[in-house]
């Protein structure tokens, strides 16, 4: 269980000062908890006794154990492929890769969906269905493929959807970002500086930020109106994007259904264009036709 999970699971049993401390920890996670207990208490305007009491409520023996758990998460957040493989390699079950990999991937997908707040999901879909909001989508070195997948579907569903290019030219696109537009950012460990910068610039222009990230959460979450965290760790040197893809496909399906009348018109026009360009082969069509 992540440190944040342990902390938030006991929120209802916390005193007002403990909830105030929890807010400080979550707002600047994990950095807020890596200093001394005195520094944390001062930042949250509570006593060191309050810090110790809250940690005991959440299952930690004390501040040193809490910090050790935080440092472990930081290590996971910045892990490269070799470190990820080493983590799994010493504890792999003796079964075929088809079983052990797929079982973990399916477990990731289930846990990711189970942790999504349906109200927050619906709020995101409301944003994406609003014709007065333009949508900008960005991803990184790996998540850029998912960003393009989401873009292709949303662009078929509604107008005013842009995919920010994975190059410095995205600065030109940001000139058009205005208040109440939506930036969808995909960012997983090791969290890319360019994606964070895009988020910061769009936030300064008063756009709504939507973040798709992993269980450790990209730094962009401090700017985001909506954050969706997926489980991505699998027995491999590389993380799995399957849970993020599943979540995005749920969103695509819901937005498409809400806007179906206009989606049908756009789809009909697109199919006519496909016919004219002969993009797809027709059944029974010969190679020479």
UniProtKB/TrEMBL annotation:
Q: Kindly give the InterPro entries that the UniProt entry links to this protein.
A: Homeodomain-like_sf, HTH_RpiR, RpiR-like, RpiR-like_SIS, SIS_dom, SIS_dom_sf, WH-like_DNA-bd_sf
**Molecular function per GO:** carbohydrate derivative binding; DNA binding; DNA-binding transcription factor activity
A Pfam family per the record? HTH_6
Alphabetical UniProt keywords: DNA-binding, Transcription, Transcription regulation
Keyword Transcription regulation part of the UniProt annotation: yes
Give the transmembrane region(s): none
Q: Which CDD domains match?
A: SIS_RpiR (cd05013)
Give every HTH rpiR-type domain span.
Answer: 1-77
Please cite one Gene Ontology biological process associated with this protein: carbohydrate derivative metabolic process
Keyword Transcription, does the record have it?
A: yes
Q: Which Gene3D superfamilies match?
A: Glucose-6-phosphate isomerase like protein, domain 1, Winged helix-like DNA-binding domain superfamily/Winged helix DNA-binding domain
Q: Which PANTHER family match?
A: GLUCOKINASE (PTHR30514), RPIR-FAMILY TRANSCRIPTIONAL REGULATOR (PTHR30514:SF18)
Protein name, entry field = DNA-binding transcriptional regulator HexR
């Amino acid at each position: 269980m992540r440190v944040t999970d342990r902390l938030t699971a006991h929120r209802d049993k916390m005193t007002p000062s403990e909830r105030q401390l929890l807010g400080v920890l979550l707002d600047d996670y994990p950095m807020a908890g890596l200093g001394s207990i005195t520094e944390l208490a001062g930042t949250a305007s509570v006593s060191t006794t309050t810090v110790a009491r809250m940690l005991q409520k959440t299952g930690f023996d004390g501040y040193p154990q809490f910090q050790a758990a935080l440092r472990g998460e930081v290590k996971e957040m910045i892990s490269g492929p070799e470190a990820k493989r080493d983590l799994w390699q010493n504890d792999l079950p003796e079964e075929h890769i088809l079983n052990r990999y797929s079982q973990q991937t399916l477990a990731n997908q289930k846990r990711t969906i189970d942790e999504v707040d349906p109200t927050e999901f619906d709020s995101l879909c409301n944003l994406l269905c609003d014709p007065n909001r333009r949508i900008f989508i960005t991803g990184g070195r790996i998540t850029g493929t998912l960003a393009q997948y989401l873009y292709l579907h949303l662009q078929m569903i509604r107008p005013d959807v842009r995919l920010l290019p994975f190059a410095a030219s995205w600065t030109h696109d940001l000139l058009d970002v205005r208040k109440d537009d939506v930036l969808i950012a995909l960012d997983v460990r090791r969290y890319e500086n360019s994606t964070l910068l895009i988020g910061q610039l769009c936030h300064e222009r008063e756009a709504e930020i939507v973040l798709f990230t992993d269980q450790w959460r990209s730094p962009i979450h401090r700017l985001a109106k909506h954050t969706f965290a997926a489980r991505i760790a699998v027995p491999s040197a590389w993380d799995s994007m399957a849970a993020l893809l599943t979540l995005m496909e749920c969103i695509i399906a819901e937005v498409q259904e809400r806007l179906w009348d206009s989606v049908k018109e756009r789809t009909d026009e697109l199919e006519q264009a496909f016919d004219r360009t002969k993009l797809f082969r027709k059944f029974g069509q010969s190679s020479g036709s």
